[in-house]
Specification:
Blueprint (H helix, E strand, L loop, with lengths): L1 H6 L14 E4 L10 E6 L2 E11 L3 E7 L8 E6 L5
Antiparallel strand pairs: 1-2, 2-3, 3-4, 4-5
Length: 83
């Protein structure tokens, strides 16, 4: 639950990821399925959309608008009990 309290706060990425300059909501809906955020990393701006969301279990998002050479980029976080 502690880890999810950070990951699940989808629009606050910049508060814990040091490489992120800024992050903001692109959708009115709260964090969860189909939520989008705008992420600023240096001079680059990325758009990310949640594609999988199960509180306290998994969060996955896709980076949108990348060059065709990259096809598709997704990041998936899976939480599991330790020990």
């Amino acid at each position: 639950e502690v880890v999810w309290s950070v990951l699940g706060d989808y629009f606050q990425l910049h508060t814990w990821a040091s490489a992120i300059n800024h992050c903001s909501a692109m959708t009115a809906a709260p964090a969860g399925p189909d939520a989008r955020r705008r992420v600023v990393v240096g001079s680059n701006v990325l758009l990310e959309e949640v594609v999988e969301w199960a509180p306290n279990e998994v969060m996955a998002y896709e980076i949108l608008g990348l060059p065709k050479a990259l096809r598709s980029v997704q990041n998936r976080w899976v939480l599991a009990a330790h020990g």
